[in-house]
Amino acid sequence: MSLLFIRETEARSLISMAQAIDAVENVFRSLSSGESQNIPRQRVRIPGVMLHSLSAAVSPLGYVGWKNYTTTRTQARFHIALYNPDGEWVSLLEADWLGQLRTGAASGVATRLIAKEDAQHVAIFGSGKQARTQLQAVCAVRNIQHATVFSNTPERREEFARTMSDETGIQVVAADSPAECVAQAEIICTATTSKEPVVTAEMLRAGVHINAVGSNALNRAELSADCFTRIDKVVCDDVDSCRNEAGDFVGPMASGSLQWEKISPLASLVTKSEGARTNREEITLFKSVGMAIEDIAVAAIVYEAAREANIGTELEI
Amino acid sequence: MSLLFIRETEARSLISMAQAIDAVENVFRSLSSGESQNIPRQRVRIPGVMLHSLSAAVSPLGYVGWKNYTTTRTQARFHIALYNPDGEWVSLLEADWLGQLRTGAASGVATRLIAKEDAQHVAIFGSGKQARTQLQAVCAVRNIQHATVFSNTPERREEFARTMSDETGIQVVAADSPAECVAQAEIICTATTSKEPVVTAEMLRAGVHINAVGSNALNRAELSADCFTRIDKVVCDDVDSCRNEAGDFVGPMASGSLQWEKISPLASLVTKSEGARTNREEITLFKSVGMAIEDIAVAAIVYEAAREANIGTELEI
């Protein structure tokens, strides 16, 4: 049996953010209709390493598959596998960047559905790889003119501003403080590894949409609990996964400013024909922790493009 | 990065049933002490194929890993992966036979702990691959003199009797009926794919120990519900997994002849110094659906032996 191994460097040329956003929107639609199934992330650990395992089935694409990754203090290693309807393991993909891409794409789907249509200014918290795809995704779905970035290390946020200005063609400016970062923000993306909240209630302007993607552990939150006294609409990628992993929800649930039944899954939103925003003043949040259906959706595009273009390495197993 | 791919044909020479039984006993001991973690099987499906995913961490062995397998109407394909404490993916193993081996080994552990010490006669239901390793495992832990086998197809049970007589060196006889099969049985192993019970209450002699491994789905049972009015002690591999998968427990739970709190996990038994059987008349059951810790335990032995013997294929990924 032979499967196609696709390296990260090969994957990058085979899928665009716009394609990823459409693929992720479609896969959420198929989840809503029952044509896809998603198993939330499971984690096990021994001293030194944690293994994270997710799986999904996406009937419209014709694949079942998994993502498994290990994390240590210094490194993370990600792989996605795809199997066809005959049960054959057809592809193994390196999936660090693919994970960033699909997380960005999910924010892109949510932003397209919920953010103000004429939003021009985005504020990014965090200057790592996840922050890059958040900005790319928002730029793909709104006519963004200006971005600000804040992270704790001045050199890193300045480097982010430089490289992302070049890449996006818009003006990306490093802010000296969180308050400066959000001063004009109509969209905020948080993609930090902070354990302390980076966004607080007084930083939220009327009409702002937030994508919070940095925390997928109950002991980490990027939004202070008081934000939820001001947020009008909360959407998440998957309610079950968020019960296990959305640290941002822990504080507001405890204080009573948020209830699970007030949180809408993204899958229910994508099936509606009208936008999810009801007025220009509403403050909205999309909280995502990541789902295997998203991984399978982007991996399927990469795999099929790689087969087409004769890219990748056949592994005989 | 390079990982060692080990084919089924290569694995067979690298581990014995006796080694597997000890490894599985040890891994249950480490589960009991909290040094191992096990995630029950999760399943997703699209038309044509189902993906089954399990994962575990085994600290005393120094591995985290997963088993993923696909099943279609005609075929099943199994793989196990091992990662070291540095998070490196060190091995990928074909795992059809390894799965049969570890399922046999778990029955071996339970049989060693619970069956009568002088048991000499075993009855096997089913003549497939899982039935083979059940017989091998029981023979490894008790001084078995005589085995009987029953399955629906006469040719298959006769073939099983022939080949397993050769392999085990004991007399294995094909029985013409379930009743004939169990007439002298002190140990019964059920390893069928039957949806209808193959063992009923009147077939159970005083003092018999049963290993029931065939069903890992709630709609399949090998033991009739009335068996549980006679079974004195019920042990299972994992209570959480059995809640999801042990079809044998559905009937007796519904009729009230079994309660979850009366079922002991194998992990709690292996840590006791004395045997689990209290008298020669007791009827005992070990129900297993399969756990990832067992897969990791046997895969670790195979991987380390393969490295030692320079067996397997390096995959560059």
Protein traits:
homodimer, 317 residues
Structure notes:
By secondary structure, the first copy, chain A, is α/β, with parallel strands linked by helices. The first copy, chain A, has ten helices and 15 strands. The first copy, chain A, has helices at 8-11, 17-32, 96-114, 129-141, 154-168, 178-182, 239-245, 247-255, 266-270, 292-309; strands at 2-6, 36-46, 49-58, 63-71, 76-83, 89-94, 121-125, 146-150, 171-174, 187-190, 209-212, 233-236, 263-265, 284-287, 313-316. Chain A is globular and about 60 Å long. Helix content of chain A is 35%, strand content 27%. In chain A, helix 2 (17-32) crosses helix 3 and helix 3 (96-114) runs parallel beside helix 4. In chain A, the strands form two sheets. In chain A, strands 9-8-7-10-11-14-12-13 form an eight-stranded parallel sheet. Chain A starts with a strand and ends with a strand. The interface between A and B is large, with 46 and 46 residues.
Précis, in short:
The structure is a homodimer of 317-residue chains. With 317 residues, chain A is α/β, with parallel strands linked by helices.
Show the helix and strand layout.
The structure is a homodimer of 317-residue chains.
Chain A: E1 2-6, H1 8-11, H2 17-32, E2 36-46, E3 49-58, E4 63-71, E5 76-83, E6 89-94, H3 96-114, E7 121-125, H4 129-141, E8 146-150, H5 154-168, E9 171-174, H6 178-182, E10 187-190, E11 209-212, E12 233-236, H7 239-245, H8 247-255, E13 263-265, H9 266-270, E14 284-287, H10 292-309, E15 313-316
Helix pairs in contact in A: 2-3, 2-10, 3-4, 3-10
